[in-house]
Write a structure and sequence with these properties.
about 140 residues; mainly beta; four-stranded antiparallel β-sheet
Length: about 140
């Protein structure tokens, strides 16, 4: 998997005139990226089957919750950045988490669905603040 960023102007130019940078596993980019989201602080967050990573424009860092907190699972299948600086996480095993100001809150759908809740494929927050999750059961 490779990531690319481009800076373009309003004018049409040949592709070779664009400024672009690519990041690969050799540059520290994680493998098996499932989703991308950018929070209001400028970080680009990457969900993977092996955890959560953030990118500051220069380097990649695996996210490790503060002491006493933990990710529900390493398999993260969806991300949604909120306008107030938070980040929703959807997991492969039916849980969600919300990360804001260094605090990670976990929520589970297992009590709401018969048996295994399934993979949280998408999380979305509406304009009125209602949070929706598309779960594959």
């Amino acid at each position: 998997m490779a990531m690319f960023a481009s800076v373009a102007s309003a004018q049409t130019r040949p592709f070779l005139q664009f400024q672009h940078t690519g990041w690969t596993i050799q540059n520290g980019a994680p493998s098996s990226i499932t989703r991308l989201a950018q929070t209001t602080d400028g970080y680009l967050w990457l969900s993977t089957v092996n955890g959560l990573f953030r990118f500051d424009g220069v380097s990649f860092e695996e996210y490790r919750p503060p002491h006493g907190q933990q990710l529900a699972h390493t398999g993260i299948t969806s991300l949604y950045a909120t306008s107030d600086g938070g980040l929703w996480l959807g997991y492969t095993l039916g849980d969600t988490g919300f990360l804001k100001n260094g605090v990670l809150t976990l929520q589970s759908f297992k009590g709401h669905v018969q048996g295994h809740a399934g993979t949280v494929n998408y999380v979305y927050v509406t304009h009125d603040g209602t949070t929706w999750a598309a779960v594959e059961v």
